[in-house]
Amino acid sequence: SAVISQKPSRDICQRGTSLTIQCQVDSQVTMMFWYRQQPGQSLTLIATANQGSEATYESGFVIDKFPISRPNLTFSTLTVSNMSPEDSSIYLCSAAGGTGTYEQYFGPGTRLTVT
Amino acid sequence: EDKVVQSPLSLVVHEGDTVTLNCSYEVTNFRSLLWYKQEKKAPTFLFMLTSSGIEKKSGRLSSILDKKELFSILNITATQTGDSAVYLCAVEFQRSGYALNFGKGTSLLVTP
């Protein structure tokens, strides 16, 4: 299974600022995704991070608000831009397709609080 | 519209009991169904099911998929307090590179 790390693990940010979350996988993977889990809710897909091209966003999420980079097969970043308290959430990255199977593994998450 | 429905939403049992968690789905271009256990932050992978009728087992946990009736169950036998967690069912669909569509989860509490 892939081992995934995220930085930072948590942060408290002021409204109007931006935060970039990093996701590192210990092996090359085909697919990487970003999810959001709001308090008491299940996980919602934000976007698929495509290596070498623009991310594919789900309905309700836009690139200007959540720009994503994926420069190679082991690393991706998600930026939460112009934050508001409604962005307070846990942000998780996941990866799949690293070892010939498509089991999807998750990073430890980043707990973001916007004040 | 794609959807994944889990039941029950919450469950309280005593140690030693056996529990069955349910997951039904309606997803276009179904690829697989996954079960996760979430205790604090990150969901921990349990099973990935792609074929009907083939049970997957790991210790006291087992799961099976019925692609005709569009549901899966997760069984936990001889429950322990360490099984207390939210169990998430997710369906993988071929729309955005096999991303996951999650159910709301079943919150399981095992009491001593």
Question: How is this fold's topology laid out?
Answer:
The complex is a heterodimer of chains A (115) and B (112).
Chain A (H helix, E strand, L loop, with lengths): L3 E4 L2 E4 L5 E7 L5 E7 L5 E7 L6 E2 L10 E2 L5 E6 L8 E8 L8 E2 L3 E5 L1
Parallel strand pairs in A: 2-11
Antiparallel strand pairs in A: 1-3, 3-8, 4-5, 4-9, 5-6, 7-8, 9-10, 9-11
Chain B lengths: L2 E5 L2 E5 L4 E8 L3 E9 L5 E6 L6 E3 L2 E6 L4 E6 L8 E9 L5 E4 L3 E6 L1
Parallel strand pairs in B: 2-11
Antiparallel strand pairs in B: 1-3, 3-8, 4-5, 4-9, 6-7, 7-8, 9-10, 9-11
Structure description:
The complex is a heterodimer of chains A (115) and B (112). Chain A contains no helices and eleven strands. In chain A, strands 2, 4, 5, 6, 9, 10 and 11 form a seven-stranded mixed beta sheet that branches. Chain A is mainly beta. Helix content of chain B is 0%, strand content 60%. In chain B, strands 2, 4, 5, 9, 10 and 11 form a six-stranded mixed beta sheet that branches. A five-stranded antiparallel beta sheet of chain B has the order 1-3-8-7-6, with no helix packed on it. Chain B is globular and about 45 Å long. In chain B, 32% of the residues are buried.
Topology, number of strands of chain A: 11
The helix-strand sequence of chain B is EEEEEEEEEEE
* Gross geometry of chain A: globular
Biggest β-sheet strands, sense, barrel of chain A:
7 strands, mixed
First-to-last CA distance of chain B? 41 Å
Number of helices of chain B: 0
